[in-house]
From TrEMBL:
Name listed for the protein in its UniProt record: Type II secretion system protein H
Transmembrane regions listed in the UniProt entry: 12-34
Organism of this sequence: Thalassolituus marinus
Keywords recorded for this protein, A-Z: Cell inner membrane, Cell membrane, Membrane, Methylation, Transmembrane, Transmembrane helix
Protein family per UniProt: Belongs to the GSP H family.
Membrane topology: Single-pass membrane protein
All copies of domain General secretion pathway GspH, residue ranges: 47-149
Gene3D superfamilies: minor pseudopilin epsh domain (3.55.40.10)
Short name of one Pfam family: GspH
Listed InterPro entries: N_methyl_site (IPR012902), Pilin-like (IPR045584), T2SS_GspH (IPR022346)
Amino acid sequence: MSKGYALRGLTLIETLTCIAIIGITMTMAVPALTRFNERIRISRESAELHQAISLARSLAITQRSRITLCPLSTRYECTRDWNQQLTAFNDSNSNRRVDAGETIYSSVSGISHSGALRHFNSSVISFDERGFAGFHTGSLSLCHSNQGGNFSGSVFIISRNGRIRPGTDRNGDGLPETPNGKNIPCPST
């Protein structure tokens, strides 16, 4: 005689209970995952900015030449739209444009989403052969607005001697301040 095996499935009540548990879990997990992804994206974009500024300064010292970091127009001239792709290049004649014989070293992608804003108070960040920024100082900031309408961001402060330091949130409102104590500029809602 062969032994018979009884097949057992889930009852309708058990199936509905499992679906309800999965639904509740997803309802809680999706917003948390979205916030986590936003934080990762903001951290990555901030790290890219810091790396681009640091690389421009290092190249200026190692290449013994003026290196400029800026958003370029289609005519390879520096503009003030810091949300565009940023490019570091050898600017040996300090004319804020890529001329024949000047090397493009690196670039940082532009911002592709409307909830973010990069800001700098000038059209270029430029370092001389000693790594000094001279009069090309300021604060390069990045601000993001999330789905809840809250803002977060980072700022990198460039001193005359070329030092790059991150800004801090001294007033505890979630946004870092520039050296003059003002919050970084953020996208309008």
